[in-house]
Amino acid sequence: MLLASCASAVPPSRLGDYLSPESQADAGVFGRLEPRPVPAGLLLVSDTAHPGASPNLPDEALRQLGESLKQEVSRAIPVRIKEMVPPESIQPQANGDWAQFAELAKKHELEYLVLVVLSSTEQEYPVTLFLGWTTYAQPGFRRDNWSLLEVALLDVRNNRVLIQAEGRGWATLDSPTAPGINQWYPVIYLRPQDPERRIWPPTYEGAPNTLRVVSFDQAAKRMTLNLQKAWIESLQAAGAEVHESS
To answer: pLDDT tens-digit profile of 154-184?
Structure first.
């Protein structure tokens, strides 16, 4: 319970530094929106402004995540992603700054943007590793990564957020102090949700980046499920409004 409680707050939400609370639409507004699917641009913003934030994903990993999200978001909600929109000068602001999204959407001739804010944090500490998983102790270190994906569909023309959700991921990297035992290490675990599964990074030097990619992949799966749930709730809210007015 303690682990789950800590994971739910790490890293902290960053979406509020991009979107103000005043931009939130009524619960059922997306369910009433026509026509569907909504044509939109996908905007990925890698946020490293918070103290203790992890480094950005490498450009290629970020591009691959974007390509995956284009498919997954379109499956979760009735949105057709027309293009990936470069974040350019999008920055976190106190209470959000809608003008920067309006300007970017106008430049790309879009009325809707799917904003995805990526953030993560890590901690590293010494541990004793074991060769063959049971014997022969080896000094090493463990790096825990917590990742967060926050998504919001923006109706830029009307200055409102139509729907939003988040997904969190966790992964752990075990590495020896001295390289050269790559038959066992470095290795990534999906702790605590799947502690028996092991993922071996392709290179020793790139292991921290592989850790972040794995963690964000877990966050993306949960974000997609939560986004679909939010869409169903929007439909239900829209249906309830129609029932009350009839």
So the answer is: 999 888 999 999 999 999 999 988 766 667 7
DSSP conformation letters of 191-242: TTTEEEEEE--S-STTHHHHHHHHHHHHHHHHHHHHHHHHHHHHHHHHHHHH
For residues 203-217, give the mean pLDDT: 94
Please give the Cα distance from 233 to 246 (Å, whole number).
20
- Count Cα atoms within 13 angstroms, Cβ side, for 150: 17
Please give the C-alpha separations between residue 228 and each of 16, 163, 183, in angstroms, as whole numbers: 21, 10, 40
What is the spatial distance between Cα 171 and Cα 173, in angstroms, rounded to a whole number?
Answer: 7
Please state, as a whole number, how many other Cβ atoms lie within 10 Å of the Cβ of residue 20: 16
**Could you tell me the two tokens for 201?**
């990074």
The whole-number pLDDT of residue 143 equals: 95
Which contacts (CB < 8 Å, 24+ apart) does range 100-107 have?
A: 101/43, 101/154, 101/156, 102/156, 102/159, 104/43, 105/41, 105/154, 105/156, 106/156
Task: Read off the amino acid at residue 135.
Answer: T
In this structure, what are the phi and psi dihedrals at residue 59, rounded to the nearest 5 degrees?
Answer: -55, -45
Question: What pLDDT does 246 receive?
Answer: 56
Instruction: Provide the CA 124 distance to its chain's centre, in angstroms.
Output: 21
Instruction: Tell me the CA distances in angstroms from 73 to 56, 112, 223, 225, one per residue in order.
Output: 22, 14, 9, 10
CB 4 within 8 A of CB 146: no
Is the pTM for the entire model greater than 0.85?
Answer: yes
Other C-beta atoms closer than 10 Å to the C-beta of 224 total: 22
